Amino acid sequence: MDLWYTEKHSDNVGITIKTTKTLFSGKSQYQQLDIVETLEFGRMMLLDGLVMVTERDEFIYHDMITHPALFTHPNPKKVLVIGGGDGGSIREIMKHPEVELAVLCEIDGLVIEKSIEYLPTMASAINGSNPRVKLHVDDGLAYIRDHQNEFDVILVDSTDPIGPAVGLFEENFYRLVFSALKDDGIMIAQSESPFYHADIQKSMYHNLRAVFPIVEMYQAFIPTYPSGFWSFAFSSKIYHPTKDFDHDRAKNRNFKTRYYNEELHRGAFMLPTFARDNIAE
Amino acid sequence: MDLWYTEKHSDNVGITIKTTKTLFSGKSQYQQLDIVETLEFGRMMLLDGLVMVTERDEFIYHDMITHPALFTHPNPKKVLVIGGGDGGSIREIMKHPEVELAVLCEIDGLVIEKSIEYLPTMASAINGSNPRVKLHVDDGLAYIRDHQNEFDVILVDSTDPIGPAVGLFEENFYRLVFSALKDDGIMIAQSESPFYHADIQKSMYHNLRAVFPIVEMYQAFIPTYPSGFWSFAFSSKIYHPTKDFDHDRAKNRNFKTRYYNEELHRGAFMLPTFARDNIAE
Predict the structure, then answer these.
(1) Which chain B positions have a beta carbon within 8 Å of A192's beta carbon?
(2) What are the phi and psi torsion angles at A263 (to 5°)?
(3) Mean pLDDT throughout B146-160?
(4) Can you tell me the ipTM of this complex?
């Protein structure tokens, strides 16, 4: 039997992916979780029917949500990831020797549990073996309310602004993140597709600018996400993502990156005109 | 009836697009041509079942195959487009006041004819109204053999290296292009997806480097192309695409571009590591 999973990116377009096996399918308190085997992308995790990560292209998303901030902040010792239960962001953060502690705050324990079981290459740093990693199964808002002025970098590794993640795109949340950061802290949040989600981007960047003095959008190609053209919001109290970026530290890093590099760091902020227009003030 | 057109990007993944109407479907001497109406992308042209252009995202491809070369060459007077029968590249070339003549050499007259009929926003400069444009329905190889040392810029606006375009990816063809260019000429060719077509890229860039002293890859997001991550090869006798780029001329251009801009011009050449690796010597 030839089984294809089709994710609609709007009413009128979608990506269709051949699957060979369902590894897990179940419902948590928050959402539907499916992990399937595909021929093109390896194992693939879906939340509420939307592709979150695949083994073949997750390196792009995880390189790009972590390294731009960690090579801009001069001394990132304490990092918080909100969401990101697959563990890929934590795995990349752990490659930075300056980081003393990374905290994963994921609302849905089932995502962590099944990622450890079925996505071991992503979850390698959240399986209990790494003393520099702490896991909290908790609501991100509740967690940061209790941890003010504590983090150098906070990554909002969330799903789309529907379902459990909707609060993570609002100004009140950004204010809490701002005060959970130290005086020179940086926040990164995935910020949807400039091609399909102009309205979400407009309101999200407006909300971010109400809170952070520096807000810049950067881009990455993610083949399994809508349009393949994805973006991240770099929000910061002091450091600018290209002017204050530590080019030499990035260039001399002691680990390989298949997407990120010190040239691309700058190029990622050079946006197509229509993407700049989406967030023009 | 709910009709969806699915283009497979490999045996195991594809894009699926809702169509509402078939405007033209026919076979030329060279290939199958279909033009359909879609809800998401407007009108869409397919050759042998592969998406070539859509009204909604063609601005990206046509900005990026034309403006990087035309803002690098200091005085592009005579430009040749091989392929590109939809007319989008010619439309963009015409925005450069330095260009005295643009020649379109398309092997398949049916593509030109039906683009003028059904894709008027793309074909606006090839419908006979523009005295700076000449059309030749001819094989690109035969044409450049007869026009040596003549062009400032040549754009190879081809389909994939299957069917009628296969010869346009070979070293012999690049040698002919080289000698059809003036002593400071530039050639641009679309060079497939770094994500899906590593093998094609490897051989294509090897062939280009055997002929041109300067060969650089640059990137663009094209949502309706495989993976959404597409590339172009910048090949040149003298001018380097970022060192010799005329930033001020690009910045002060007297026309709007929805994708290209003078910052993105540089950023487009800052590639992900895996894309650089595809074409490493």
Answers:
(1) none
(2) -75, -50
(3) 94
(4) 0.96
